[in-house]
Specification:
This protein is of the alpha/beta class. The protein contains 18 helices and 10 strands. It starts with a helix and ends with a helix. The chain binds adenosine-5'-triphosphate (ATP) and magnesium ion.
Length: 558
């Protein structure tokens, strides 16, 4: 249908000069009003047909283009969500953002611009040339001889414009990133009184962007100058040649007028085609960048048919695991790391900052795969399970919990949409979050702002704990989940976790003595290696590393 509209619009455009010629001829040949009128109506009909076809074509092709963009975006985004975290360690977010926005939008030009302009230009060029030759072959010969030369010149200047346009776009993207990073860090910027240095950096970027934009404007103006001069001189030349023929009584003014219009169409056709080649190259580049994402293998099970995850008691085993982050492959984080968690056990992981505690938890969630060794949940290698199924078995409160911009309720039932109101409130109550949530302006329906900005850090932590408690999983992981809480709230939460111990395996990263003391077993980690393990009391005697850690953390310096 879009194609039909395209053909009609191109065809009626070609008929326009014909109708005009008929109009002039009628005017010259007859003085009868009736025929003048019919010529006038013919002209109006062609105009109406053309306008309607153009509008219809524009709508249909834009629809097709937008549909394409939306579908591609949806597919790429879905795929992106399923890629392993390792991919994002090595691909900056800004780059992915621009692929999903500008590159995807460029695909619309394929349908919305390349297809219609290409086809129209081709029809225009061929049709106009044919009609020109039919009108007067001598003028056509002049035209065909001159046009290629003009085309070469125009293409040369067009290239110039395209090159400067790419540079200008890149500078603009950099400017946007600058704004984003400054605004994101605004409280830090202000705290360090660094406004003028941020502004200075922005000025420099903005100036660079201005210069490249100016370069683009200059190239564009030059192109316009060249195009106007060339095309109008061509038209003048055609008029002159036509005039000579008229003077020699070889042809009529009506023919010359039609001819000049067709010549203009043919020239536009040529220009359109040369434009299209540039567009095709640009779109191909964008499509390639999107395909590169789609070709990345998503997270999956090693098995073609993932082993079914059966509810088990929650036993965990790390077996000789070696791990380095993909973004920093030469720095080993865990070396020959082995650890066993018995079902129902509560294990505390302690160690200095950067020793690899969070990394161990990430491996258990299979956010990363170890380079050597294996990890088992109830005897099944994590790599043989479906990653989503695995993560449904584990509830986690991460060290820096992410609060989404929705309401308190949305955040608690995140990932558990089926939870009832009663379950949500119960989870909040156990997480010591019910009280402060109830005091928010609209309780559980209160929006919490971007990243939960409108909560205190300790409130954010309790919300994240409620979110984890809502999921009845065999394994509960807490990564310094109460680090920002006061002693009283912390004590209350410890009681909650003590209740959880009955039917769950608990893996806790904590530094507070009270938490560590009550754990069944403590593992001391340093530089990705286990320095000692056992119950708190025994470790204090047998592991000097642990004794020193405890002494420094918990006892006031004398
Ligand atoms: N995404 C990452 N890419 C590369 N290296 C990382 C990444 N995340 C962490 N690391 C490095 O891995 C090491 C262990 O980090 P990890 O977060 O496991 O430490 P941690 O014991 O949890 O420390 P903390 O007590 O400060 O939370 C650190 O040296 C850190 O720099
Ligand atoms: Mg950590």
């Amino acid at each position: 249908m879009a194609l039909a509209a395209l053909l009609v619009s191109s065809g009626s455009l070609l008929a326009l000069p014909k109708a005009l010629g008929y109009f002039i001829d009628t005017l010259a040949a007859t003085d009868r009003q009736a025929s003048l009128q019919s010529a006038f109506f013919l002209l109006l009909t062609v105009i109406g047909l053309y306008a309607a076809a153009v509008a219809l074509r524009m709508y249909l092709l834009s629809w097709l283009g937008e549909r394409l963009v939306a579908d591609v975006r949806r597919r790429v985004f879905r795929h992106l969500l399923r890629l392993p975290l390792a991919f994002f360690d090595t691909h900056p977010t800004g780059d992915l953002l621009s692929r999903l926005t500008s590159d995807a939008a460029l695909l619309e030009t394929l349908v919305g611009i390349v297809l219609p302009i290409g086809l129209r230009s081709l029809i225009q060029l061929v049709g106009a040339l044919f009609l020109m030759a039919w009108l007067d072959w001598r003028l056509t010969a002049v035209f065909v001889a001159v046009v290629p030369l003009l085309l070469v010149i125009a293409v040369f200047f067009g290239r110039q414009v395209r090159r400067t346009a790419v540079a200008a776009r890149e500078e603009e993207a950099r400017l946007v990133m600058r704004i984003e990073s400054s605004l994101n860090a605004l409280s830090t910027v202000k705290s360090f009184a660094a406004e003028s240095s941020e502004a200075g950096q922005f000025d420099r970027n903005s100036e660079i962007s201005f210069v490249s934009a100016e370069r683009l404007m200059r190239a564009k103006s030059l192109l316009v100058f060249v195009l106007f001069t060339l095309s109008l001189s061509l038209a003048a030349t055609m008029l002159y040649a036509g005039g000579l023929l008229v003077l020699e009584r070889q042809t009529s003014w009506s023919v010359v007028a039609q001819f000049v219009m067709y010549a203009a169409f043919a020239a536009f056709g040529c220009a359109g085609l040369s434009e299209i080649f540039g567009e095709i190259r640009k779109t191909a580049g964008a499509a390639e960048r999107l395909l590169a994402i789609l070709q990345q293998p998503p997270e999956s099970s090693r098995q073609l048919q993932p082993l079914p995850v059966r509810p088990g008691p929650g036993a965990v085993r790390f077996a000789q695991v070696n791990f380095a982050y993909p973004g920093r492959p030469q720095q080993s984080v865990l070396e020959d790391f082995s650890l066993e968690l018995r079902p129902g056990e509560t294990l505390a992981l302690v160690g200095p900052s950067g020793s690899g505690k969070t990394t161990i938890l990430r491996l258990l969630l299979r956010l990363y795969d170890p380079q050597a060794g294996a990890i088992f949940l109830d005897g099944v290698d994590l790599r043989d399970m479906d990653p989503q199924e695995l993560r449904r078995q584990i509830a986690v409160v991460s060290q820096e919990p992410f609060i989404f911009s929705g309401t308190a309720r949305d955040n608690i039932r995140y990932g558990a949409a089926a939870a009832t109101e009663g379950q949500i409130v119960e989870a909040a109550r156990r997480a010591q979050a019910d009280e402060f949530i109830s005091r928010l302006p609209t309780g559980y329906d209160t929006p919490l702002g971007d990243k939960g900005q409108q909560l205190s850090t300790g409130q954010r932590q309790r919300l994240a704990i409620a979110r984890a408690l809502l999921r009845q999983t065999r394994l509960l992981i807490l990564d310094e989940a109460t680090s920002a809480l006061d002693s009283e709230n912390e004590m209350l939460l410890r009681q909650t976790f003590a209740q959880q111990r009955k039917n769950r395996t608990l893996l806790i990263v904590a530094h507070r003595l009270a938490t560590v003391q009550t754990a069944d077993r403590v593992v001391v980690l340093d530089h990705g290696r286990i320095q000692g393990e056992g119950p708190h009391a025994r470790l204090l005697e047998t592991c000097p590393r642990y004794a020193r850690l405890i002494a420094l953390e918990f006892e006031p310096p004398s």
